[in-house]
Amino acid sequence: MSSIRASMEGELPELAEKLSRLSTIDKAGINNAIAEALRSGTIERFEGEKSPEGAAWNKSIRASEKGGLTLTMTGQLKGSINARATEEGAEVGTNLVYAATHQFGASGRVIQAKNKPYLAFEYHGRTIRKKQVTVNIPARPFLGISDEDRQEIKSLVEEALSEA
Questions:
Q1: Mean pLDDT for the chain overall
Q2: pTM of the complete model
Q3: More exposed terminus of the chain, fewer Cβ within 10 Å: N or C?
Q4: 100 and 92 in contact (C-beta within 8 Å)?
Q5: Contact in structure between 117 and 131 (CB atoms under 8 Å)
Q6: How far is C-alpha 140 from the chain's CA centre?
């Protein structure tokens, strides 16, 4: 009767131990930290008026004429940024219906008065009244993953793996 015997030597037992500890990692906790980091990075982009790639947003007419920051007249959009995480992943976003217009832009969009006979808005210091207007809103991306976000995610994952 013949037999085969195998043994692990060197770094293999240590590696096997580390691999067994990976199953105990709190994936939901890591993803929660990632989601919060992404949410914070998104909110910081409103302060810097920059896309995740670092490109400056086109200044809004309101911000140009009255001061302040683009996309922050009321702060509602910035305040609506939320984060959610599970064991499977992390997500950051907003449920405001107009967020997509600012993220992707809108060319040739027609806005019509619905509840009143006309729209009233201020443009270059004058009040304008019209039944409808066509607007071109440039994209001002605020959602996405910046290089800084990638570094933060990498650090969070590396820290979790080193503690396993």
A1: 89
A2: 0.78
A3: N
A4: no
A5: yes
A6: 12
Q: Note the pLDDT tens digit of each residue in 12-22.
A: 767 677 767 77
Kindly report, residue by residue over 31-90, the tens digit of the pLDDT.
999 999 999 999 999 999 999 999 999 999 889 988 999 999 999 999 999 999 999 999
* Stated length of the chain: 164
CA 119 to chain centre: 32
Tokens read off for 94: 């907003």
CB-based contact 72:42 (threshold 8 Å)? no
Give residue 79's Cα distance to chain centre.
Answer: 12
Q: CA of 84: how far to CAs of 26, 96, 130, 136, in Å?
A: 15, 16, 41, 32
Determine the 3-state secondary structure of 130 from DSSP: strand
- Where do runs of H (alpha helix) occur along the chain? 12-22, 27-48, 61-66, 76-79, 99-104, 147-163
- How many other β-carbons are positioned within 10 Å of the β-carbon of residue 58? 15
pLDDT (tens digit per residue) in 117-158: 999 988 888 899 999 999 999 999 999 999 999 999 999 988
Element (H, E) at 83: strand 82-85
3-state secondary structure of 35: helix
- The distance between the two most distant Cα atoms of the chain, rounded to a whole number of Å, is 100
